[in-house]
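The record is passed on directly below:
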Amino acid sequence: RHYRGLGLACLILLAGGGLSPAQEPPPSAIREGPPPIEKPLYTDLGTFIVNMPGDKYFLKGSIQIVFAESAPKSWLDARLPIVKDMVISHLQSITVEQFDDLKNRNRLRSSLQNRINSLFPNNPAWDDLEPVRRVLFLELYRQ
């Protein structure tokens, strides 16, 4: 009979109703990086397959770019062939050594973002002078 009470005590401990009434709250997540975009707008640049220098490997990447406003997105969407040509040229310059160093992934992302932002006019009709907020790789690998 005394085992029945022990089982109930173990069940209470396992269920979280244990002995410590003053438990610490779980730590809150620390967010690093830019603040989230409330209503992101995406432009799909598609999938790129390019020869890497040396012609031994191919680089394959699917890329989306993120905007916070619709005006610069519409402006760039009307010029996608220029953007895609620039992205292809840039991806073709990446060496195997650069690609294999994981530190370079953020540099590649940042470099593409800066290059795409440089395509916008100097005096745009919108406020944001760097409207491409993020470059997202949906896939990125060499084969």
About this structure: The helical segments are 2-14, 70-77, 80-92, 96-100, 103-117. Strands lie at 41-51, 58-67, 132-142. The chain is about 40% helix and 20% strand. The CA atoms of residues 41 and 67 lie 5 Å apart.
